[in-house]
Amino acid sequence: MPIVTYAEAGASAEPALLLKYAAPDLPDPLARQVLDPIPAIAAKELRIRWLPIPLEPAGNDPSVEIPVPDDAALRRIAGKVSGASERMDKVESAAAGHLLDEAEKECRSYRFTEATRPFLAEIFLRRGILRVREGKASDAGPLFLRVRALSPGFSPDPALFPPQVLSVWEAIMSRPVPEAELLIESLPSGAEIFVEGERRGITPARLRTKNIAPVRIHVSHPGYRDAETTGQWLPGDTEILRFSLPGDRVARLGELLAGAAQGKGGGAGPLVEELSAASGTSRIAILMLEKEARGEGLRARLYVGRPASLDPALLGETSFPEGKRGAEISGKWVADTLAADGWPRADPPEKPWYYSYWFWGFVLSAAGLAAALGGGGGGSSGASSGTVAVTF
């Protein structure tokens, strides 16, 4: 479980990268409770500023908004549907079909709303009528089913529709209303699928949705970056959604270092070099967190990157308790260990001016001078008495 952090320090601080990795068997809340505070704790001890981890671009962009149709768009759609109706009255089936295709395409380019649903129902109804005219009643049935899904209260008026259309409509009344069917695939497969935040299965999987509105689909696979997309589908739609998941470089790095610790080879050096080049700094620290093998508590290993694509060097290991206290201990340990490896220490905080040696030297000198002057003014008549007051 890679965790990305960003902490700021002073302007003169040196840029550095902290990569934090928690073993897969560590619960995420427990790992974050310890790992999240560490960058800020270490930054107080070191003259550095943590850089954000350079991320690879995601394959799907969930930020694209589906626009809501304005009045001008609705007028254009209405004009095309009306034009198709006129062509059908003139038995110009090809021209009518072309206008219906254009009207549907424009409807789909906008968010499905109560304003566009009647147009979509009308488009599928007229397409079904065209299929009946062509003698393709079996093709008209699915189109009429989509009309029922979009406009549940609609029923063709026998005074307005021919018997052939009424016959097909009667035949589909006993059939279930269709849903949109999606085939979700990912590379690699085995990713968890979430629809509007609800877990719905593992890729590859077929999912159905009744929502006639934008739907957010998210896939997640250990060791890879999550991917997400937002789309909208009409009843009866089918689509294949393919997600190519980019590898999570921090997770991959953690796996390589964990394998090296168990004597299963290394190979992390080139990946660290890649992250170093992308972030623009040669100072890279890798903190790995896992459960303590014996008893309760946690164990951490700290690595630093080395030049020339060499594998990261292990600086040390330590154990500490869970929770806030563990974060404080581990953060201080990270700072001390990195400082011992040559990372710059933070400058000690400046003391207030009244703590300086020159100030107290001046005060004591002034007090001595005042005492001497007071003693001289008493003559030889005996001991003098006086008080020296110093006001700050």
Outline the fold blueprint.
Elements: E1 2-3, E2 14-22, H1 28-35, H2 38-45, E3 48-50, H3 71-89, H4 93-108, H5 117-133, H6 137-150, H7 163-172, E4 180-187, E5 192-195, E6 198-202, E7 205-209, E8 215-220, E9 227-231, E10 238-244, H8 249-261, H9 269-279, E11 284-291, E12 298-304, E13 313-320, H10 323-340, H11 357-376
Parallel strand pairs: 2-3, 2-11, 4-10
Antiparallel strand pairs: 1-2, 4-7, 5-6, 5-8, 8-9, 11-12, 12-13
Describe this structure in words.
It is built from eleven helices and 13 strands. Helix content is 39%, strand content 20%. Helix 5 packs antiparallel against helix 6 (137-150). Strands 1, 2, 3, 11, 12 and 13 form a six-stranded mixed beta sheet that branches. The protein has 392 residues and is an alpha+beta fold. The two termini are 57 Å apart. The protein has helices at 28-35, 38-45, 71-89, 93-108, 117-133, 137-150, 163-172, 249-261, 269-279, 323-340, 357-376, and strands at 2-3, 14-22, 48-50, 180-187, 192-195, 198-202, 205-209, 215-220, 227-231, 238-244, 284-291, 298-304, 313-320.
